[in-house]
Amino acid sequence: MNYWKRKVARSIENVRLALAAIWVSRVRAFLTMLIISIGLLALMGMLTVVNAVSYTIEDEIGGEQGAALEITSWSRNIRINGRELGNGEDYSYITRWQAESFCKAFSAFGNAAYETWLTSTQLKYRDKKSRPSLSVTGISENYLLTNNESLAYGRGFSEQEYHNVSDVVVIGSSLAKQLFDKESQALGKRLMVGSAPFTVVGVLSSKSSSFGGAQNENVYVPLLTGLTRFSVPDADCLVKVNPRAGTSISTARTDAEMIMRRIRGLRPIQRNTFNILTNDELTKMILESLSSVGMAAILIGLITLVGSAIALMNIMLASVTERTREIGTRKAIGAYGSTIRGQFLLEAIFITVFGGIVGILLGIIAGRGAAAAMGVNFTIPWGWAIGSLILCIVVGIFAGYLPASRAAQLDPIDALRYE
């Protein structure tokens, strides 16, 4: 029992002496802590932002927003960090007839609809205007249902409006706020879409948007109306697919592929002349591109920690030299070499851990600020925070071991004679 009491008392004394030594050399200790803090600030800040963006992408793209599958004739390219990621190839247009035939055939397996880009223009209501170059999209029947779009006010297009080339429009909630005093006041109002007059029959519900993007500025018109009013030929169509509840995405993909191949007139030996992209594939493609940002953050953190380890080792060696007589005195009155070694190791560990904690906290705060500015959900990378703290302890042991061993091996007589 007395043995353990002595061990505890010795450890407490080592901690007290280590903290006192750090305070004496507080300027050098502070500069070393600052180096570590800056490295971990960059590491945790970048990883916090990457984590926040990743979770937001998974929630918005991989969640319930949008259709489960998209069929296009063009490749889907995303440019992130100067690197272009692509999915698929470019093929001949999916015509309106092919898209319509697909939707009818797929009705046995779930919901399907299609859209086509018509023009980019500005919306006007009296003296109020939207931002220029808004995309106007022509949509088919069941599009809002298939694409999981909900209405805050009004209704979607009726079957009669689709077939009678009616000048009706459904707009996003942010557009309704810009052009009218209240979203509900948009209903029944006649506004200009470019140079063509349209009547507002519905306002889409607010939808969360990645990176503060304006996802509520959608402008939907019946497809045939859009083709007529904006003088667009039978343009390329994007087909949206949502399988019935209980049907897996892989099964729905197989069914959709089989139907589209038949409609496109492909023989069994021919490859697909269209692209099918799922939300999961799009999410995976974006998250893989973000991994390079995380690797850059890790590299910055490691380089900084290596630099701080070298600086800390230099400081500790200088400290051993300056405190040679103190070490000699302690050993002369009975201090063990292991006690001296433990004190110097604790000094190095305390410096790295204190610097690491400050850097981690500042990094999380910076990451939170960046996430708020980007309009993404804030999440703390707890795994990296704990891992960084453990790494700081390892760096402290590595940087302090040589100076601590040198201090423990000093001969007390020689040390007392040191000037």
Classify the helix fraction into a percent range.
55-70%
Sheet with the most strands, sense and barrel status: 12 strands, mixed
Low-pLDDT windows of residues: 208-214
- Written as H for each helix and E for each strand, in order along the chain, the element string is HHEEEHEEEEHEHEHEEEHEHEHHHHH
Gap from first CA to last CA: 41 Å
Number of strands: 14
Task: Output the number of helix runs.
Answer: 13
Strand residues, percent:
15-25%
Residue-averaged pLDDT, rounded? 80
Radius of gyration (Å)? 33 Å
**What general form does the structure show?**
elongated
Structural class, judged by helices and strands?
alpha+beta
Please name the defining characteristics of this protein.
419 residues, alpha+beta, twelve-stranded mixed β-sheet, 13 helices, 55% helix
Give a quick summary of the entry.
The protein is an alpha+beta fold and 419 residues long. 55% of the residues lie in helices and 17% in strands.
Can you give a write-up of this model?
Strands 1, 4, 5, 6, 7, 8, 9, 10, 11, 12, 13 and 14 form a 12-stranded mixed beta sheet that branches. This protein is 55% helix and 17% strand. It is built from 13 helices and 14 strands. It is elongated. Strand 2 (76-80) and strand 3 form a beta hairpin. With 419 residues, the protein is α+β, with helices and mostly antiparallel strands. 38% of the residues are buried. Helix 2 (26-60) packs antiparallel against helix 12 (382-408) and helix 3 packs across helix 8 (249-263).
